[in-house]
Amino acid sequence: MKLLEKTQLGKLILKNSMIMSAMTRSRADVNGIVGDMTVEYYSQRASAGLIFTEAIRISEEATGSPLTPGIYTNEQIAAWKRVTQAVHEQGGLIVAQLWHTGRAGHSLDRNGKLPLAPSPLSIRGMQHFTSQGLKDYETPQEITIAEINETVRDYAQAARNAIEAGFDGVELHAASGYLPSQFLAESANQRTDGYGGSIPNKVRSYWRSCKH
Hints:
Elements: E1 7-9, E2 12-14, E3 19-20, H1 36-43, E4 50-57, H2 74-89, E5 94-99, E6 116-117, E7 127-130, E8 133-136, E9 141-142, H3 145-164, E10 169-172, H4 179-184, H5 199-211
Parallel strand pairs: 3-4, 4-5, 5-10, 6-9
Antiparallel strand pairs: 1-2, 7-8
Helix pairs in contact: 1-2, 3-5
C-alpha cells in the first residue's frame, strides 16, 4: 500500500503517509508546562509518518483555554524537549502547532485581562470553556498596532523556541476562529486601518507572521 510507503514532505522524509492531526489535550499545568502524560501520549503515536501537536500558545497573551501548553518560557521549552526526544527515539517526526486564540478566550484564565482581537466584537451564540466552566464570551479589546507588531514577534520567537525544543517544523494555527482567521472575518474585523477593509489588508498580519 502506498499509504505505508516512505514519502517526502519538504525536507522531511516520512516513513509513511499517515499524519496525526492536532488535537487539544488540556493536560499542561497552570504554567503551560507539559509533563509525563504528554511525553507518553506523543511517543505512543510515533509510528505515524508525521505528528502535529496540540495547539501551543506563543505567549501569555495568546492564552485562550485553561491548561493548554506554551512555548515561550525556558521551562516550557525544556518540557517539550522531552516530548520531541521521546518521539525521535521511536523513529517519529513531530511538528509544533503555534497558537494565538485572539478573542476566543476569557479573562478568568488570563489574570483578569480581556482577550485581544482585531475589533471589540464578541463571539455570539456560543460559550467558552474556562477553568470555572462554560462562560459567555466577553467583548475583547481591540488590538493596537504596537500589539500586532509584538504578536508577530511572538510568533517568530515561538518558532525559534520550537526548533530549540527539537521539533521538526512548525505550523501556524490559522483556522477555527482563532486570531489569524479573526482578521479575515468581517464578524471579527471591522478595522479601518491597514489591517482592515480590503482582503490584502486583512491578511497582512498573518503573512507578516509567516515571513518572520
